[in-house]
Amino acid sequence: MTEEFPLDPGGTSPADKRVDDLLAALSLDERIALLHQFTPGVERLGLAAFRTGQEALHGVAWMGPATVFPQSVGLGATWNEDLVRRVGDAVSSEVRAMRARDERVGLNVWAPTVNLLRHPLWGRNEEGYSEDPCLTAAIATAYTRGLRGTHPTYWRTAPVLKHWLAHNNETARDTASSSVRPRVLHEYDLKAFRRPVEEGAVAGVMPAYNLVNGRPNHVSPYLREQLRTWTDQELLVCSDAGAPSNLVDSEHYYATHEEATAAALVAGVDSFTDHGTDSSQITGRVRGALERGLITESDIDTAVRRQLDVRARLGEFEDTDPLPPGDFDTETHRALAQEAAEQAVVLLKNDGVLPLADDARIALVGLLADECKTDWYSGTLIHRSTPLDGLHERFGPDRVTFTEGVDRVRLHCDEGWLYVPEGAAATGTRGAEGALDPALLAGRTDLPPLTIRTDVSTELALADWGDGVLTLRAPDGRYLSVADDGLVRAAADQPGGWVVQETFTLEAAHDGHLLKHTGSGRYVEVAADGVKVADRGTVFRMEYVERGADAVTRAAADADVVIVVAGNDPHINGRETEDRTTLALPAQQDALWRAARAANPDTVLALVSAYPYAVPDADRELPALLWTAHGGQAAGRALARVLAGDVSPAGRLPQTWYAADTDLPDLLDYDIIGSRQTYLYYEGTPLYPFGHGLTYGSFAYEDLSVEVGSDSLELTFAVTNTGAHQADEVPQLYVRPLRMPVPRPRRQLLAHRRLTLAPGARERITCTVPVADLGHFDVAHDRWSVTPGTYELLVGASSEDIRLSTEITVDGDAPAPRPVVTHGLDAAAYDEQRDTEIVDRTKTHGDAVTPVGASGELLYRSCDFGTGGVIGVQVEAAGEGTVTVGDGPALTVPATGGPYSYVALDADFTATGVRDLRVTIDGAVRLARLTFILRRLDA
Description:
Blueprint: H1 16-25, H2 28-33, E1 38-39, E2 50-51, E3 54-55, E4 65-66, H3 72-78, H4 81-101, E5 108-110, H5 133-148, E6 158-164, E7 177-178, H6 182-198, E8 204-207, E9 211-212, E10 215-216, H7 222-225, E11 236-237, H8 243-249, H9 257-267, H10 280-291, H11 297-313, H12 331-343, E12 346-350, E13 362-365, E14 380-381, H13 387-395, E15 400-403, E16 407-413, E17 416-419, E18 451-453, E19 460-464, E20 470-473, E21 479-482, E22 488-492, E23 504-509, E24 512-517, E25 522-527, E26 530-534, E27 539-546, H14 548-557, E28 561-567, H15 587-599, E29 603-608, H16 616-621, E30 624-628, H17 635-644, H18 678-681, E31 699-708, E32 712-721, E33 727-729, E34 732-737, E35 748-752, E36 755-757, E37 762-770, E38 776-778, E39 783-785, E40 789-796, E41 802-810, H19 820-823, E42 825-826, E43 832-834, E44 836-840, E45 847-851, E46 855-864, E47 870-885, E48 890-893, E49 903-911, E50 914-934
Parallel strand pairs: 3-5, 4-14, 5-6, 6-8, 7-9, 8-11, 13-15, 13-28, 28-29, 29-30
Antiparallel strand pairs: 1-2, 9-10, 12-30, 16-17, 16-19, 16-27, 17-18, 19-20, 21-22, 23-24, 24-25, 24-27, 25-26, 31-32, 32-37, 33-36, 34-35, 34-40, 38-39, 40-41, 42-50, 43-46, 44-45, 46-50, 47-48, 47-49, 47-50
Helix pairs in contact: 1-11, 4-5, 4-12, 5-6, 8-9, 9-10, 12-17, 13-17, 14-15
């Protein structure tokens, strides 16, 4: 439903001969050196140094000031491919501009993240676009098109998709295995990657830290069996940081690093991100693997060619750069950042309190009311607009009263009061100078540490971000932080860093509390040289000077309307390395909206967060709620313009908002079909459904028609703006398969479009959808299949707000029973399971199934044992335990000597005709395959 410029995904490289010549001229040692992230130059060949990996998720990250756009989940909430393509174009332009003045800026960008937002407690929710593979693929394709640029031959940047594959947990992220059944693999996880690759604007992928079906993603056979079959273009596979070493150190998948490096290289990893800028470890391992015969020079050449091919596409091998240096922080980029932030705002509920009247007296409250937060993958802000800034600009400072709502506290111990001495003003923002590895940026040590005074105290602003995680801020705005020397100072402008040094928890002790520093795991202690962290802490007693809820009550009572801005800090409680524990809004912030509501019924809750919250009470009690992701540099102005009605909100939720933690599956349960996850299968009532979002206007949907062809269907309908103002609408097309032989989604997104309509304007929309998109992966026959039958097409403003519908009949592949006599049964190709997980059959390929706990069960429907029937079964299994096929006796699997030592065991088994088959696995057994023995008709 979006016009796109043509790309040739199968086009030849612009410098094939140059790549061939370079590869032939490079010595073996020089080729090996090119396998590390930081490759040295080869002066004799005119080959410059190169590095893979420039973070650019929603702007150029880590390299200093740059335009900061909304978080990726916010870009997903725009449902606007044209907008996201323009954002990608601006980001790639700034990459080129920044590289022109700083060669550390790389052109191989590690973006976007296309992991599906399957589970809202995932710590990296902010990095993805949506829980739906269709929407994710559409937005990712748009962003990569922008990153690639429009030149027919040369690429402005070379985008790498993250993180291959089925990666939605930070808990044990480098050792946990995602059990992904074939249907989920093909219908869900692979779909998000496939379209961007097929569209020709992707230079490569990055494997994820986790394992899939018991095998690390960095040695995944799917790189070869799936990814590289989608395009004729060379794809550069870049490892995640430290992941090659994890194959031995944490995953223990291989005994030696030489074996691990060889396996990753053969599987398809081309660039190894490990040991920072020190390439000696990786190059040494590659040489060792070569000497041991684990790899060949051809394996090395294949990987080197892929890197050189990408560099050729970037124009590196031309005499002059074929692309201009790019624009940086232009008025166009600033306007685009604001447009993106405005389009990302989702109006969740509105009983008429919004938009605000121009003469409204506004009380603005909340921990995020005067914040413009960035995240780990943000650039350094050049411009900054908080909600307070935005409302001041739009309504005037005299009409806005601001109260943050933090608790004001003083800390006292036996020695006296905690005191923050005066220090030098901050000299700049942490990371403003740029860093190839911002995790190495150190805290400030030029400021005096905290002390204890008996005559004076310092009032601190206490914010509780949930799970008891606190920040403490001094009156000058600096956060208490711990530097490498262990001393506590008021030194940080914001919480941040790979290991956050600005958060604390309280532990009850005696008549007070110990203050535990979360970054170091040590306790705050009063010492002769100042306050520091140590193994034993000082007991502090907290005196509340003012409760934040009391301040909010006062401000709310005198206002016409209250805006409560609540949400998360992207560096705390839900981020890379840390999953959330709950959907609940932190208690301190929950108390603020309740206090505001008690004082003033016209209270609006604006949630600014990287993920969904469960706020059923707020939905029930408040007249209006909004949500936006952290919106980048223009977030505050954008929110204010939406609140004022200058912009009619039209963002749509890119993932389901559940009502309670009890609605969620286990974080590590990746079977969205079996456990009924996401809007596709969830059978409960969500707080807000996928695709939900209101506007200030109204729209009529009408005149639905559809034509079904052999390969595609064309659906048209009209949308009319029946309101009084120009506004955006996002019509969405879903399909609901009816009366199908296997479980299918309740409804599934096929297409969408964001359009702008003037009052009274009418637009006819046409959606052309391949018939194949109605299909599913048929595990019985190991193929993609469209089942003939009836499909309901649904058009509406969300997955639950359906305005038009019609039914169509589609021809397809007639359902057929499993041909188990001729093809046998792969254990992982089940229809249903209980208490099992999929594991690796071997270290290089194939799947097996093993119980989770003492026993598990597999169900295979419609197995065709033939009219003559079968008289026996052969079980291929490893480990030790029993396998019971159907109603037959338990077949004992003796100790085979290891998880990959399979034996074939025969047993009597009789069955005829078409019937379901149930298989029970007990003990430490890995079941790989069943083969059936046909009854001889002449016997």
